[in-house]
# Entry
Amino acid sequence: MRMIDIIRKKQLSRALSREEIRWFVSGYSSGEIPDYQAAALVMAVWFSGMDEEETAELTSAMAESGEMVDLSGVDGIVVDKHSSGGVADTTTIAAGPIVAACGGMVAKMSGRGLSFSGGTLDKLESIPGFRTDLSMERFIEMVNTCGVSIIGQTKQLVPADRMLYALRDVTSTVDSMPLIAASIMSKKIAGGGNKILLDVKWGSGAFMRTSESAERLASMMVEIGKHTGRDTRALVTDMNQPLGNAVGNALEVEEAIRILRGELEGDLKDLIVELCVHMLEMGEVCSSRSGALREVHQVLEDGSALEKLKEMIGLQGGDPRVCDDVTLLPQAEKRIAVESSVGGWISSMQADEIGIAAAFLGAGRMKKEDVIDPAVGCWMKKRIGDQVSAGEPLAVLYVNRETDAEEAAERIRSAVTVGEGRPKPRDLVVSVLS
Ligand code: URA
Ligand code: CA
# Structure
């Protein structure tokens, strides 16, 4: 086979065969196919797309490019939950302990932040001492005893995705539906979970900018799940503003803790509860939606979900006292309010810009090798539909490098649109596919 023929075929919008897709994935992973030819192919896919069979084949080939995790040592049904990426999406850190407190099994491999979107691993590592590099044996043992463990993807997990992702990031080909679907599903399949719950985001803080495109992506991934024998469900959810109010690593851990303590309400908590209900149903811990809802509220109210988070943090080497005293998390030197220049109703937000503002303060990476500052970020004070007066804070910045504060403040101010009328509320969960 010749790479040049495969590129030409996709350029002409023809479907690639199973053999061609497998030959490309294995050749690229082993280093025989150079970056420039792989870049040409992903660009052709960006323009021409892939049909369902090609996408499923690409997914399997990528999943099999590295080690396949064997979770058969876990005594129960493992439900893997995955978000397509967003801003202030701290759901996993609260949902994992809630599901475990209800008797479910959560064996989660998470990723790091990427462009404007945060990553669960970076957030958890802001807890003093917390380790995300457990051995597979320790991981499985912890899931069996504690019910939940969250670790990093090992280097051997889907190397084809690691390489392709880095290539797409710098060739403007991230937002291709078949490429996103294969990237996410290959990691889920190699990750070994029996059941997969996907949270596909749409909006200004998501890779899919319309609810229709998010629904197409969700349905594509559910189909891939079917092709590969995994029971897959997908929620399509709103990401037109930061999901929670905290954007930044330690700040988001604080928000998750405060939700488990029962101190905060709102969209983030509502979505956490919704995801937990699906995980409990899929994991066959609860047989009905109403039963699952009751369980979730129970473990939130009696404090057992918070206790579960403490147990998980302690077992992974972290300081569980952060759950009782959030000031033990890294603290920024300075807080600076970002005030609205006009009064009115908050009508929309450019959520990706708010993620970038936090990254600018040091909460995310501008370059791959950047080191994250766990303490910094911003805490939004307003949400879409809130009223604001001129001079009132839209957000508070948590800052260690004061030189970056003005640009971050300006980005947030221009990311928030203040209008005259009250905007129509939008659904948090648009649809559920299975
Ligand atoms: N998340 C992933 O893991 N891969 C993508 O391509 C996009 C979001
Ligand atoms: Ca948050």
Remarks:
- DSSP finds 16 helices and 13 strands in the chain.
- The mean pLDDT is 95.
- The radius of gyration is 21 Å.
